[in-house]
Each structure stands twice: as structure tokens, then as C-alpha cells.
Automatic annotation (TrEMBL):
Entries under PANTHER family matching the protein: BINDING ROSSMANN FOLD OXIDOREDUCTASE, PUTATIVE (AFU_ORTHOLOGUE AFUA_2G10240)-RELATED (PTHR42840:SF3), NAD(P)-BINDING ROSSMANN-FOLD SUPERFAMILY PROTEIN-RELATED (PTHR42840)
GO BP, sorted A to Z: NADPH regeneration
Gene Ontology CC entries for this record: cytoplasm
Organism: Cryptotermes secundus
Listed GO MF terms: nucleotide binding; oxidoreductase activity
Keyword Oxidoreductase: yes
Keyword vocabulary terms for this entry: Oxidoreductase
Residue ranges occupied by any Gfo/Idh/MocA-like oxidoreductase N-terminal domain in the UniProt entry: 45-166
Gene3D superfamilies listed in its UniProt record: Dihydrodipicolinate Reductase, domain 2, NAD(P)-binding Rossmann-like Domain
Top-level taxonomic group: Eukaryota
Protein name stated in the entry: Putative oxidoreductase YrbE
Pfam families in UniProt: GFO_IDH_MocA, GFO_IDH_MocA_C3
Family that this chain belongs to: Belongs to the Gfo/Idh/MocA family.
Length: 387
């Protein structure tokens, strides 16, 4: 009877606790159950360029999205068209080869274009779409070089259209939580911030050849994440890079990279990247400051299961295998954000100057790897993010 004195009145007589904001899937369920039709607006008419790995991820976010009408899919792999149409039930979507892409650009119904083609094709598709008055969602990197990316953003400004670069990690619930907590001062002034990004699967050599290299293809995600969390850009970077896979050496790229970044406030950043991780898609972050540390460890598709068999010790389930599963929510959230912008429900959270800054930092890191020197970076006032 020692605890009887703690007995509360019936839960039916009390106000029940609300779902925590951290349960983002429950928040989404609440929207569905409230049938918030007004929030969905009129369907945005769109076209998708490229249905490879990234394109398939975006197709899954577009195909049955009540906020979208997918008018066109452009991809030269014609033998896949019927299967894609049947699988996603895209009876009204027109499939085109890239040399017929004019039909998309000249169709006034097409409001926006999603670009998920190889990086070396982005600049032409992006600028042509913008020049024809379409808003553009483009996979990272927007273009192969800073000058090409600048050209794309100049065209966007000239056309008065949106060019949105898809850095999906900003839309990952865990990384959002870390950012908000860092910005609310939980760890104080950040002393060090570390990311680790290791791909479980080696990309195909064909992909690597058109990827614009590990710094612009992969490091840009980590650079963007760190700068977005800190709200500042580095003034000095130093990189060590190796190529441990002979086929990647043959195409002149690296597969293992460590980057250090020094920020104006004194914070140090460390990025650890590898093209191949045998234990799964290794994606972690740690933010350390005088008041403590925040970490986001690897997530698992099934996280509640643990086994204790014989004397093997405790075993959990494997971590996610690759980006389509690890960042599934992030990809969905970024597409919803793009639609929110088009429907005037949100302002873009990834600005052109941020994308260009990331590209400039990636180039500096690459230069440091090749020259084995520290590389200094200077920033014009328009690149300094507000606090
Ligand atoms: N954000 C991420 O996590 C992420 C992940 C993977 C790839 N990406 C980016 O997505 C882009 C595509 O990469 P991927 O891995 O999907 O490549 P992929 O090779 O798997 O797919 C590319 C697709 O584009 C098609 N294509 C090629 N040229 C075309 C053209 N001119 N017009 C229309 N379609 C064309 C190809 O037939 C293919 O189906 C790259 O820029 C890459 O950096 C981003």
C-alpha cells in the first residue's frame, strides 16, 4: 500500500497529454484524419526528368500525391516506360525521350520540373526549363561547377522563377531536431561538429564518371548540413583524400576523404566520407560544446528488436542499407516543402546563395586535397547568413 497515496484521479477526468512534436508521423496522421483539404490547394502540374535512382525516389513522392498531376516523364530508357506506367498507374502521364523534351518546355500547363538526371545534364535542363517559365526542383549538385551553378541561379532570377536545390538532409527529422537544439543553445557555442557519411553500396562507375567527383557529389551533403546547423561558412579548409579502390583511381576520383573546416566563430568541423561501408549506410553527426553534446546515430528500419542468443552479447537489427531507405522521410518532406512554396504556403528554406556557397566550399576542399595545402575562403557580405 506504500504507493497508494500516489494514485491519480481517473485518466478520464484529466486532460490527456498531446502527442509530442517529435512524433512527426502522428502529426501527419492528424492532418489526414482532419482532412485539411484547403492545405492541399490545386494540384501542381509537373514533369519529371530522369527515373533512375533519385528519379524513382521522387516518382514515389509524386505519383500518388494528391497535390500533384504528373503530366510528363522524360527518360531515354524506353524499355522501362510501360513497366513504370503500370507499376505507378500513370495512365495519363506522357513519356518522352530527351530529344522530345521541348514538348514539356512548350506546354504551358507544366508549372514545375523535377530534375533527377545525371549531374552533367542538369545545367541545360534547368536553364531551359527556367527560360520557359517553369519552377525547378533540381537534384544536387545543381551543376558541375560553380560557374555553371551561378549561371543557373542567374537564369532563375532573370525568369523570376524558383530554382530549388534538393539537399534532403535538411528535411530529415533527426537532423532537424539537432539543428533546433543547437540553435536554442543546448550545447552552448559549438566547439566541434563532426559528420560521418559512408555509402553502403559503391555507385556504378558510369555514375561516378558523370558525378563531378566525390566533393561535389557527396561532400556537399555534409558541408551543407554543417553550415546549415552552424549558420556560418568556413574561412579555411584542409583535406586529406585517398583512393583505395583501383577502378575509382582509374577515373581520377577519391573514395575516402577527411575534411577539416575552420569557422569564423572558432568552431571546427570534421567530415569523414567513404564510398564503401560494409556494415550499412553509416550516417552520423555529433555536435559538441561547453554545455554538452548532441548526437544522431545510425537509424534502423526495425529499431526495437534486440537479441541475446548464447554468448554473442546483445544484437540489434542492421542499420539502413542506403539513401533511399535512410532518407525516405527527408525526400518526402523536401518534395512537400517544394509544393508548399509553389502553393504560397512556405518560403524556400534553401536559398541559391547557400547552394553556391556549398559548391565553393566543396571546390576549396577538392583543391586542398590535390595541392595538400590549407585553402582560405573569403565571403562577400551577401553570403554571411543572418544569426
Ligand atoms: N540527394 C540524394 O540523396 C541523391 C542520391 C542519388 C543521386 N542524386 C543525384 O541525382 C542525380 C541522378 O543520379 P541517379 O543516381 O539517379 O542516376 P541514375 O543514373 O540512376 O539515373 C539517371 C536517369 O536519368 C536518365 N537520363 C539521362 N540523361 C537524361 C536526359 N537528358 N533527360 C532525361 N533523362 C535522362 C537516365 O536514363 C537514368 O534513368 C545526380 O545529379 C545525383 O547527384 C542525389
Amino acid at each position: 500500500m506504500a504507493t497508494l497515496k500516489f494514485k491519480d484521479p481517473s485518466p478520464y477526468k484529466q486532460e490527456l497529454p498531446k502527442a509530442p512534436v517529435a512524433d512527426f508521423l502522428y502529426s501527419s496522421f492528424l492532418k489526414d484524419i482532419a482532412l485539411q483539404q484547403a492545405e492541399r490547394g490545386t494540384a501542381v502540374q509537373m514533369a519529371l526528368f530522369g527515373v533512375g535512382r533519385a528519379g524513382s525516389i521522387h516518382l514515389s513522392a509524386l505519383a500518388h500525391n494528391p497535390r500533384v498531376k504528373l503530366l510528363y516523364i522524360v527518360d531515354d530508357v524506353q524499355e522501362k516506360w510501360d513497366a513504370i506506367r503500370q507499376y505507378w498507374k500513370l495512365d495519363d502521364t506522357v513519356f518522352l525521350c530527351s530529344n522530345d523534351a521541348d514538348k514539356v518546355f512548350l506546354d504551358p500547363r507544366v508549372r514545375a520540373v523535377v530534375v533527377a538526371t545525371p549531374t552533367n545534364t542538369h545545367e541545360w535542363i534547368v536553364t531551359t526549363a527556367l527560360n520557359h517559365g517553369k519552377d525547378v526542383f533540381c537534384e544536387k549538385p545543381v551543376a558541375e561547377s560553380i560557374s555553371s551553378a551561378e549561371h543557373c541561379y542567374k537564369q532563375a532570377k532573370k525568369a523570376g522563377k524558383l530554382l530549388f536545390c534538393a539537399f534532403q538532409r535538411r528535411f530529415d527529422p533527426a537532423f532537424n531536431n539537432i539543428k533546433e537544439r543547437v540553435r536554442s543553445g543546448e550545447v552552448g557555442h559549438v566547439h566541434t561538429i563532426k559528420t560521418c557519411s559512408r555509402d553502403a553500396q559503391l555507385p556504378s562507375l558510369e555514375y561516378l564518371r558523370s558525378s563531378s567527383g566525390i566533393f561535389h557529389d557527396t561532400a556537399v551533403h555534409d558541408i551543407d548540413l554543417i553550415c546549415w546547423i552552424l549558420g556560418e561558412y568556413p574561412t579555411c579548409v584542409a583535406t586529406q583524400a585517398s583512393t583505395l579502390t583501383p577502378e575509382i583511381a582509374e577515373i581520377g576520383d577519391y573514395d575516402t576523404v577527411v575534411i577539416t573546416l575552420q569557422f569564423p566563430s572558432g568552431t571546427l568541423g570534421i567530415i569523414d566520407i567513404s564510398r564503401l561501408s560494409s556494415h550499412g549506410y553509416d550516417q552520423r553527426i555529433e555536435v559538441f560544446g561547453p554545455r554538452g553534446m548532441l548526437t544522431s546515430s545510425n537509424e534502423r528500419p526495425m529499431h526495437g528488436i534486440e537479441s541475446h542468443i548464447g554468448f554473442q552479447g546483445g544484437n540489434t537489427m542492421p542499420i539502413y542499407y542506403s539513401f533511399p531507405s535512410r532518407y525516405k522521410m527527408a525526400y518526402l518532406n523536401e518534395m512537400e516543402h517544394f509544393l508548399d512554396i509553389l502553393q504560397d504556403k512556405a518560403k524556400p528554406t534553401i536559398m541559391g546563395h547557400e547552394t553556391l556557397a556549398v559548391s565553393k566550399i566543396a571546390s576549396a576542399c577538392e583543391e586542398s586535397a590535390r595541392t595538400r595545402q590549407f585553402v582560405q575562403l573569403q565571403w562577400e557580405p551577401e553570403y554571411i547568413p543572418p544569426n
